[in-house]
Sequence to fold (630 residues):
Amino acid sequence: MWMEHPSIETLSRALAALDADACVRIVEEIGRAVGSERLMTEVFLPALSQVGDTWAKGLLDDLAFAQAAVIVEQLWALAGAPAGRSAAPKSEQGPTVVIGVISPDIHDIGKNQVAMLLSKRGARVHDLGADVDPAAFATKAREVGADAVVVGASTQRSLFMLPDVRMALEQAGVESRLIAGGQAALAADEVPQADAVVADAYEALDEIMGGPEAPA
Amino acid sequence: MTRPRSQQLVLAEGLARQLQVAPAIEACHRVLELDAKDPLAHALCADLYAYGAFWGKAVEHATVAIESDPDCLPAYLPLGLAYDALGIATDQAILVWHELAELVPDMALPQALLAEAYLTIHHFDEALNAVEMASNIDGEWARPHFTAALIHQMRGEADKAEDAWARARERDSAGEDLFYNLNRIPQIDTTRSPSPEPPWPDDLQERLRLAEALLRDGQLNDASAVAKSVANERPESDRALGDLAAIHLKQEMANEALILSRRAVDINDQNLGARHILATCYARRTALLPLAAELWDGIVASEPRHAVVHTLAAEARLALGDEDAAVSGLFRAVDIDAAQPRPYYALASLYLVSGMYAQARATWRRAGALSLPSGVFWDLYNRVVEAGEAEAAPAADAAAAPAPETPASPEGQA
Fold:
């Protein structure tokens, strides 16, 4: 039979007593003992439920209930759930990617989409922006140890600069994969300097992370 | 300068208000036979043609209306919508929304439309400026925040985009409506507000119905007091606790809402309204998103016909990086209710991430069209009519007033 964690009662009593120090101590101790996930599901949330019960029974007045909610706000961070609704936590294991639109080109919407998708899937993305000098890709790739360099080229003139990126990478001793995207790269019969040419953000994801199902 | 409305025009108006499109257009044309430049008749025609997506005719009539009377507010709406719908005339639409924004500075809609038009042509700074203006006018309106999210996404500003999504979702009323639907809380008669005055009903179910009516009427403190009296008498009433959670959430007291909805769900995990409020509270914290998604998935399993639950579950899945589940949920939501704008905004975001810009644009424009507040044309129309009547009243008073007693000048007599 499932047993209630003994600390639920202790924490809910401390909350109802508005004893913030005791609450912090309890949450820290349990967090250390069982980890943040079990702390949240087995102790913290059930304790909040008990506080609700105490209020419903009239054993906690409205002012005290509001003050308990303030203490709860302080405890969220300790319990591993600070405020904010952002994307799924980024992985520290994802590939490192340097991305940018090569000069002379300022069409950065496609690059932004790829950067966002990669970032959401756990890649560590270093976005150099638009109109980027070819040498800058190599400098950044060497600095961060990039696994891949993604270069957007939407105009013919910018595509002509792609060999310069390859040369800069080689001169810098960087062995990152060079992936090209953008209208001009797609329209070209072949782009021999690139290891791959991608049509959209998902293809880029496939190339870099091994498919859209790759874990974040 | 607004002219008095003719009987024919009033007839055309009546038909247009009932959306009897063909007879209304015919009636407008009868007005125009008598006065070819009647601005309100042209504005009516423009709106009716825009309703049928006859964009060229809408532009034609709206243009004549504005040329005849630049203050003819209702003509700007179909004109801007038509330019926008034509796809190649976004710059013209921008001019129209700018004009309308100047004429009705108290209305957030022109600024919101302006933001969307600027977004379409990738003028992001101007778009964000218009979003800010719209938010300043109506801080509780979700639409500008959805637009801001797309703008930031296109700029590659992931954190700002997420913040804007969160603001939009918090303001969007779909979640609140879902709570009412899941708990079968009926609509209230908006012409007669429920009274919170004691004595409250002795029967606890009846008292809860009063609390729920007060909640729907926006009398939150009274709703809270009535519902709490039930909870105090029966602390195990999951419905009372669920209602109290919804009231606290609406009062932006998210921790209290979480505490109470969690208690309600612990008492009765089949209380779908409370589960939804709990999921909403969980979803505001990244670490609790998986719990939120589970709760909404559970509601989807119990009540698969509610489009909004599919949308909420899909949004949570999207935030967790499960894009396949998100896409499937969003399309299911659209299948169930194609008139809900919210899933289209999320789909537009997914299209953007996938590099499908044209699809994204078409999708956010659809969301915008579905978010157009109903009656906005008539709001603008009524403003012009009322201004005309206010202008006409002193003139009529003057005409009806007795003649001054001072002797008329010889010139006057002549």
In short: Confidence is low (pLDDT under 50) at residues 405-414 of chain B. The interface with chain A takes residues 122, 153-156, 158-159, 161-162, 165-166, 231-232, 235, 240-241, 253, 255-256, 258-260, 262-264, 266, 283-289, 291, 319-321, 323-324, 352-357 of chain B (CB under 8 Å).
